[in-house]
Design a protein that fits this description.
There is one protein chain. The N and C termini lie far apart (47 Å). The protein has helices at 43-58, 70-73, 80-96, 113-123, 128-132, 135-145, 158-161, 163-172, 186-202, 249-257, 277-283, 288-299, 304-331, 333-361; strands at 30-35, 63-68, 105-108, 178-180, 211-213. The chain is mainly alpha-helical and 371 residues long. It has a three-stranded parallel sheet with strand order 1-2-3. A two-stranded parallel ribbon has the order 4-5. α1 (43-58) links the parallel β1 (30-35) and β2. Residues 1-26 have low confidence and may be disordered.
Length: 371
């Protein structure tokens, strides 16, 4: 659920107050995290989102909502099979990696219809100008403006334009207090606050103004080609492998790691670990002592093949225990569906009440009580 950042109308980091971004807090929280199902998850997703999210709630009393944002997924993906299979794979990934559906509320966005209705209600009090300033929309317009004789809005659907309103509905429906995001998503939380504030002022104070939670300590992994690890670049290391019965997930991960681009330095030549994607990824999985030892090996001239093998061994030691559970869930979609339906029912206990309050606030309520 990310978008591109542009400079115009963008809130600078120095302008963001502590009430808008929270890095830590001792108060009780209601945390909400959305995962867009448009492909299989990779190592960058695990390090940047899955692992820290699960760790953050393991020893906490905070309420937590995790959802599969399938309605967000169809904004730019028109292949039904991709949406369906990705939803299945991502749900299985989160559960296999340790997300406890009994501890959190884990649901599929489309199974909570109250969210879509709330999005429409919020659309009706949201200023169009606010949406004009959304980074993803502006970036798409800018691309069109670079072409000759092309309408600025060519290829832009209303899903992309109104994306921030649906995201606001996701958050405000459950009165989430804290929303973990990357810095490129801060604007969306600001918009959710703006939308909530407008509604609260115009009708009734029903919505909590959420805070963005930004953890700058979470590493952004480099991909196989030296760029940021991203599905759009095709440079990822698969977490559990692509669907391929001929090649095991373990072998797929090993093969990907062996493709990491390196320089032409020979074995025994000292190497700079701080200029190596191998070392960068290794740090995300190793202990401080292991990192120190690997740094020494780089200085001593470890061969690239040996460095890659050490990286694979370190990653595999953490990921391998999750693979069996992932494969079980992928082979048993009924179990996954039961988990999601349980989560949807938990979510709807909140959403039904919140939507009823919202509808009544705007004047949509029974004309009289009937006996």
């Amino acid at each position: 659920m990310s978008n591109n950042r542009t400079s115009d109308n963008q809130t600078s980091d120095s302008q963001i107050s502590n009430s808008q971004i929270s890095n830590s807090s001792t108060q009780a929280k209601r945390i909400l995290t959305g995962i867009k199902p448009t492909g299989t998850l990779h190592l960058g997703n695990y390090v940047g989102a899955i692992r820290p999210a699960i760790q953050s709630i393991q020893n906490s009393d905070d309420e937590a909502f995790f959802f599969l944002a399938d309605y967000h997924g169809i904004i730019g993906c028109y292949d039904p099979a991709v949406i369906h299979e990705s939803t299945k794979a991502i749900a299985a990934t989160w559960i296999a990696c340790g997300l406890d559906p009994e501890r959190v509320t884990f649901y599929r966005q489309s199974d909570v219809p109250e969210i879509s209705e709330l999005a429409w209600i919020l659309n009706c009090s949201c200023a169009k100008g606010l949406m004009n300033r959304a980074h993803a929309y502006k970036a798409a317009v800018d691309i069109n403006m670079e072409k000759e004789d092309v309408d600025p809005d060519q290829g832009i659907n209303m899903g992309l334009f109104g994306y921030p309103v649906l995201m606001a509905a996701d958050i405000l429906m459950f009165n989430a207090t804290h929303v973990p995001v990357g810095r490129d998503q801060i604007q969306h939380i600001e918009m959710a606050r703006d939308i909530a504030g407008t509604f609260n002022h115009r009708y009734k104070p029903l919505f909590t103004l959420p805070s963005a939670v930004v953890d700058d300590n979470i590493p952004l992994l480099t991909g196989l080609d030296g760029r940021k690890m991203s599905k759009s670049y095709g440079n990822t290391i698969p977490l559990f492998g692509e669907s391929n019965p001929q090649v095991s997930a373990e072998k797929q991960m090993h093969k990907a790691i062996m493709k990491i681009v390196t320089n032409s330095q020979l074995p025994e030549e000292p190497k700079d670990p701080d200029d190596s994607a191998i070392f960068e990824i290794y740090k995300a999985f190793a202990t401080p002592q292991e990192i120190s030892d690997m740094r020494a090996q780089f200085a001593a001239g470890i061969g690239w093949g040996d460095a890659k093998q050490a990286l694979f061994d370190k990653i595999d030691a953490e990921i391998a225990p999750f693979r069996e559970r992932y494969q079980e869930l992928m082979a048993n979609p009924k179990e996954l569906e039961a988990i999601l339906q349980m989560g949807a029912e938990k979510a709807r206990r909140h959403s039904r009440k919140q939507l009823d309050k919202t509808r009544r606030a705007i004047g949509i309520r029974p004309l009289a009580k009937l006996k």
